[in-house]
Specification:
Family: Belongs to the enoyl-CoA hydratase/isomerase family.
Largest sheet: 6 strands, mixed
Order of helices and strands: EEHEEHHEEHEEHHEHEHHHH
CATH topology of the largest domain: 2-enoyl-CoA Hydratase, Chain A, domain 1
InterPro entries: ClpP/crotonase-like_dom_sf, Enoyl-CoA_hyd/isom_CS, Enoyl-CoA_hydra/iso, Enoyl-CoA_hydra_C
Keywords: Lyase
Strand order of the largest sheet: 1-2-3-5-7-10
Radius of gyration: 19 Å
Helix content: 40-55%
CATH superfamily of the largest domain: 2-enoyl-CoA Hydratase, Chain A, domain 1
Low-confidence stretches: none
Distance between the termini: 27 Å
Number of domains: 2
Protein name: Enoyl-CoA hydratase/carnithine racemase
GO biological process, one term: fatty acid beta-oxidation
Bound molecules: octanoyl-coenzyme A
């Protein structure tokens, strides 16, 4: 599928999606959000894809936010529709049955920070900057930032970022637990690919169930969440990968997972 604002590459079971509007620092307009939706629906349906890397074009930005020029004159109904479209994209990424790694190569602000938050794992170049600057524009985050940020880094730390609109650098993001790892910018995509390849070599069904158990379990009470985990654990025993993984261990050889 061809996109106006995205580049998509697939190799060795890893899809790399690049938001490609560098002249606007990859800001998310309605067309780009629609393309992200179509792109991730396609990746979900493509059994050859076992992990996804999401990044931004150019050396300056991952995504510098929702497109301010496109938002400025919206009325409340249109603003809500725009926010809901963003939520659809974030939800799709968060619940994709494959792991999604954000490779944050510069500014990740507002909707860009929210896009990174919807991913499973975040790697950052040491030039990355994170922030939720919406209060500087007289609005609040609209693509899940008030919800995913406190769930990831805690309520107090999230509120400081949300109330001040301040930007933080990659080192501070690492300290807060907002990113998993910081690397030199030139090594960012390779580091993300190494991680993606490592995960892609595991049983894809088990990885998908792990993701579902973490995401859904965190929304439940502990006893219900543990039951949810037990049911997902049991489901693994209906797969060839469980037999292969345990046989391989006992036969002292590497497992060869099929994803079934
Ligand atoms: N939207 C539209 N255009 C943008 C955006 C953006 N978010 N960010 C940068 N651009 C454009 C600039 O306008 C500029 O365009 P031009 O060359 O035509 O003037 C170009 O990108 C380059 O930007 P700068 O010249 O500003 O580059 P600097 O290096 O000087 O500054 C910054 C880089 C600090 C990243 C600066 O561009 C900036 O502050 N950008 C805005 C960041 C921001 O406020 N993001 C949050 C937006 S709000 C949001 O995301 C809410 C999400 C929920 C929406 C809910 C829907 C209702």
């Amino acid at each position: 599928m061809e996109f106006n604002n995205l580049l998509v590459e697939k190799s060795d079971g890893i899809a790399t999606v690049t938001v490609n509007r560098p002249r606007a620092l990859n800001a998310l307009n309605e067309e780009t959000l629609g393309e992200l939706l179509a792109c991730f629906e396609g990746l979900e349906a493509d059994a050859s894809v076992r992990a996804v890397i999401l990044t931004g074009a150019g050396e300056k930005a991952f995504v510098a936010g929702a497109d301010i020029a496109a938002m400025k004159d919206l009325d409340a109904v249109a603003a809500r529709d725009f926010a809901l479209l963003g939520h659809q994209v974030m939800h799709l990424i968060e619940h994709l049955s494959k792991p999604v790694i954000a490779a944050v190569n510069g500014f990740a602000l507002g909707g860009g920070c929210e896009l990174a938050l919807a991913c499973d794992i975040r790697f950052a170049g040491d030039n990355a900057r994170f922030g939720q600057p919406e209060v500087n524009l007289g609005v609040i985050p609209g693509f899940g930032g008030t919800q995913r940020l406190p769930r990831l880094i805690g309520k107090g730390r999230a509120k400081e970022l949300l109330f001040t609109g301040d930007m933080i650098d990659a080192g501070e993001a690492l300290r807060l637990g907002l990113v998993n790892r910081v690397v030199p910018p030139a090594e960012l995509l390779d580091a993300a690919r190494v991680l993606a390849a490592k995960i892609a070599a595991k049983g894809a069904f088990a990885v998908a169930l792990c993701k579902e158990a973490v995401n859904n379990g965190l929304e439940m009470e502990m006893d219900k969440a543990c039951r949810f985990e037990a049911d997902h654990f049991a489901l693994c025993f209906a797969t060839a990968d469980q037999k292969e993984g345990m046989s391989a261990f006992l036969e002292k050889r590497p497992a060869n997972f099929s994803g079934r």
